[in-house]
Amino acid sequence: MHSKKNSPVRNFFRAVGAIIWKDLSTEFRSRELLSAVLIFALLVILIFNFALELDVKTRTSVTSGVLWVTFAFAGTIGLNRSMAVEKDRGCLEGLLLAPVDRSAIYFGKAISNLAFMLIIEAIILPVYSLLYNTNLFNLGLIGVILLGSVGYVAVGTLLASMAVQTRTRDVLLPILLFPVVIPIMIAAVKASNGFLQGIAITELMPYINLLLVYDVIFIAVAFMVFDYVVEE
Amino acid sequence: MIEVHKLIKRFGLKTVLRGIEFKVQPGEFVALLGPNGSGKTTFLHILATLSKPSIGEIRIAGFQLPSQASSVRQQLGVVTHQPLLYGDLTAEENLLFYGRMYAIPDIGNRIAEVLGMIGLFARRRDLVRTFSRGMQQRLAIGRAVLHNPDVMLFDEPYTGLDQDASTMLDDVLQTVASHGRTVVMTSHDLARAEDLATRFDILSRGVITASIHREELGQDNLLSFYRQALTE
DSSP letters of B176-204? Predict the structure, then answer.
């Protein structure tokens, strides 16, 4: 045997790093996930742009809602695709056969998914700014997007691991995911809107705290139950 | 090396394995034969730690399942009819990824050694999705032996291979087995099993109904023994 001298903690982080490296390498080579999700997200923004036909004042008030709906829809496609790649060629079994704690697989996939989601969001924000003529370069808003994305991906990765084992995975994931992330969506939309309207951060703290609490809860729950979710 | 005692596996109300008794000595090559639906893959999945037994005791290389699953995984190499490889990574990158998951030291040299053994060194920088089914299966074996496991589990490794690819896989399997490893292989192909294995166990309706060593076969061929075992 080769790796008896390695500590479990080191092996854990090595496995997390290996999964992130693998996901980023395959994606930057094929660009299947990023291109599909990005086109979908841009189409959603365009549809909202033409469908709502809002005046300047109303436009600012719906920005956070449109943004988070776009992130949620695009994120679902990304999460589904990310787990489907593992399932289709049996690679999920390959990961499960590795002698590492299975939560390492969860964290590796979740961090990759978060990276993809943040890349998509980083492209959507300037496009949205141009289309709606709204300045979205606001540090508070970026912080809320980061917190909201962490919670969304934390629970999304777990549920995608569950949904991918069914024949109706494409339909099942949003059905499972959207009810669970409603608190995150509400808090993220309210906090984002607050920052865009220039409301003081002290008034927005309840929403930010809610996001933080949900992030911690979702990560902890996923850490504890991932092993059972991927068990046959 | 492998000891299984009174193993029962249920899926809901359906009992797939009904009290399996199975023992494999170090260095033995056991072919597990049986008709479709007899429970071969379920049994191998349990040995591979991909599924938990409902009832029963299992020890592999001195470690108990499922409580010491991680230690067992370090001793196991598993090959299924799916390659468990990433099409958008090269052969070398696939092995590098699994090498990191198994925390193999001096991974570069080990990868070169394994690629040489399976005859794919010249194609090491090609994407796996450009490989034929036979080449993918050889690389899958390379992936499985990368961490130098003591026990190899093969689940229908010849599925989908043409005659040439099957013959090439025979050579690789013989090389793998000749290193003193313990091998358990499920197969429908009696002729191939007869060429490779040192012992033949027949699994029928969730129990092992017969077992014979190669030297005990005598004048009878494996096919007549197999048919007799299924009619008993």
Answer: HHTTT-EEEEEES-HHHHHHH-SEEEEEE
